[in-house]
Amino acid sequence: MRPWLVLHAFGIQFTEKLIPFDGFSESSQFKQTVAKYSPAGKDPFLQCSNSASPQADPLIIWETLAIIEYLVEQNPQFKIWPRNVALHAQARSLCAEMQSGFFALRRHCPMNIDADLPQIGRLIWRDKLLVRKDIERIETAWCNILKLSKGPFLAGEFSALDAIFRAYDHTYSDLQTACFRRYSPLYAAHQTAPIGKKME
To answer: Which H or E run includes 78?
Structure first.
């Protein structure tokens, strides 16, 4: 989803292939279909023409940050990462942290943009200390980078960093945390961004 947000937000042309989800078991149609394209058997993945050898098999890029880096390299006219060196470094660090950490948040609050689960969110917030610690870390990170960027988005203008965290906006809302209330202007900015309406 996150590379999809970057592609849409910056108007990069692509063809979207929807793969119906029927489970994560190896026998599921979803896993079998993904395995035909992704060497790691995971999504998301991006299939591109191989510019080094047009007759070769298509180029496949998998893993969110690898896809985003490829998009950055192929589309230097867009500020997918902020141009400011300090903001760039902070943004990339936070993206890597989100991709490799926040295990409690991922475990107990898997992303589901179609669901509205405030009652479950309140129970998770009450009972799961490690989820609260993950949210506290996110809040600290947002506070620090917004001091540097001055907003309205995390790194000033919409960037890959917002795409990485935008995917969890619904989760923060369901948890009804002070973080969600305190950063309501950031959520509002996400909703009015080019990708906001596409996610509704």
So the answer is: none
Q: Reduced to 3 states, what is the DSSP secondary structure of residue 33?
A: helix
Q: How many H-runs (helices) and E-runs (strands) does the chain carry?
A: 11, 2
DSSP summary character for residue 128: -
Q: Which residue has the higher pLDDT, 56 or 160?
A: 160
> pLDDT band at 169, cuts 50/70/90?
low
Tokens encoding 132? 């609260």
CA 54 – CA 158 distance, rounded (Å): 33
184: tokens are 């309501």
- Burial class of residue 100, CB neighbours in 10 A (0-12, 13-18, 19+): exposed
Band of the pLDDT at 149, cuts 50, 70, 90? very high
pTM, whole model, 2 decimals? Answer: 0.83
CA distance 153 to 186: 6
Q: Which residue from 135, 76, 65, 66 is spatially nearest to 99, judged by alpha carbons?
A: 65
